[in-house]
Request: fold
Amino acid sequence: MLRSMAFLLCGSIALTAVAQDAKPTTVLGGIDNPCGVAVQGATGHVFIAAHSGVHRFDPKSGKAHVEISGFPTDIYGKGPKYNIGPLGLAFWDDEHLIVGDGSRPDGDELVRIYKVGKDAAHKDHEPIKEDAAVATLGPIKASEESAKGEGNFYGVASNGKSIFITCNGDDTKGWIAKSTATNGKPGALKLSIATKVATEVDAPVPVIFSLDGKDLVVGQMGEVSTPPGDSLLSIYDPETGKLKKNYKTGLNDIAGLAYSPKTKKLYATDYSWSDSKAGGLFRLDIDGDSIKAVKIASLDKPTACAFDKNGVLYVAVFGTVAEGSDKPAGSLVKFDSGL
Amino acid sequence: MKFLPRCFLLFCGALYAVLVASDAISADPPLGLPSIPVPSDNPMTAEKISLGKQLFFDGRLSADTKVSCASCHDPAKGFSNGEPFATGVGGKKGGRSAPTVINTAYGTLQFWDGRAKSLEDQALGPIQNPIEMTMKLEDVVKRLNGIEGYKTQFKKVFGTDVTSDGMAKAIAAYERTVVSGNAPYDRFKAGDTKALSEAAQRGQKLFFGKAHCSACHAGPNFTDNSFHNVGVGMDKKDFDKGRADISKLAGDTGAFKTPTLREIAKSGPYFHDGSAKTLEEVVEHYLKGGVPNEWLDEEIFNIKIAPTEKADLVKFMTEGLSSPDYPDHKAPELPK
Reply:
């Protein structure tokens, strides 16, 4: 009796569901290891952070160029190994782009803010040089709170008053760093939320504000070397840093988060490091204390994602380099409005 | 660990109550630990757990009828064997130490290299291993079907004769009852300020801070369930490649599963190769940053702490993570 009850109960509850009816369209290919995406509100231009720099893509013309270049190279992983450069992107205001660094060793990495303008004028000029930022935050050096200093600033969220940066330096803490603006200028970057202490899971990666701006929504990637479905969706108070909610999503490695401005639904990308076939784009349906991840589309190692104001979703896809090839496999794909 | 929906966990809680009423071994999860994840195709019952316990302690599952699961996973030795390596039929030695069974119910991938995807998947491995129990599955099944007590129990639990599938499920169900929580650490965390000595409290602060232990030994079971190259045995010419032999990823070379630290005082010697006799040796290894190698985990690096702090760190692990409710299981009467 117990046996049959258990079977029935478990069989009636699905952690993840599949509704793969959305089709991605590749709008830009040949990008080397893209990890960050941000959409400029005024222009609809899509900015992509990759090893080679920050690219600007104009959806109207379908053309792209390198907007910011000259970043150093760091190597992620011990096999496979990936060359990485700038990582997280978010806009401070319509003209200023915040770029989280991944191109230096922990303890030396920076957060830079660049004036990128609204008119794509740089397409006919030299790219902005990496060190020609209008503001630089960090580095966060080694201290009692961070054994080796912080780095791999993958996630960036900004509401124009504060900037939150996910860090992957000290794995005992899983820090989110914060910069608070004074008189419109971002202040020093300081360690703010110890996510691993709060959740007991590693690696805060994507970070966004909730639609009402009251919550900080964080994807906690968990361990990448196994596929245990350990990724969390965690909600923090951006003022106090207090953990408000914590959801076990069942996803493997959440790498991107974005709210649809049209449907108000929340979407996540799952990089799924050790089982890339399980990765893709998921909708996260939250009902009180429960969450359900619904698979929307399979993607080959998706990273960051961002909606434009019309509800078109852009996703950076890391991709897999073909054996024997030296051509970058990364791409930018889009899902048309409707999500 | 695959996430289990809340209502399933509630169901498991109700099941624990049933098991207590049925004089089973397990009860509600102890303080500090979450509910035990139970696969939907192998629900826990008192009869199945009892059957699994008998199989776990029964040497007749091995070629010489003397080596049981408990030989290398002895409750009196922290569910390990107190030796650097597992010892099988005829005294043959394996290449790795016997990992503890304690709280392995919370694990995801099993064995030091994670080659088994569940406890059920793991349970039959050592029986067939030529340097452990050295049996063919069909021979074990045949032998156990000749034991009336087993035949009767398998009929009752699974509705079949003895089968390898049933053996795996029963052993796994029993292993899910080998649980240790409610340690001084848990009581201290729950608000009992006297649960840890001052030295252990200092050690706890080091553990979660400067000593960097919680980079991998995290969560309620003090493991991230992941695989790391911590620079053990990497100075040998033919070093053990560990997880890489399974994952085929170069980055996993020399990486092994993070073991739980619950009841660590009882389960030495330590590391996958049993090369550290004491926890003091383990601490020294980590403070030196392990044996340098190409695949060394980035969380392993030289750390400077004072000798008194080393003692505090060990005190936290030995005192703080040893439960008064240790699952000191005794061998059951075996069927004839």
Residues 16-335 of chain A form a domain with the Neuraminidase fold (CATH 2.120.10.30).
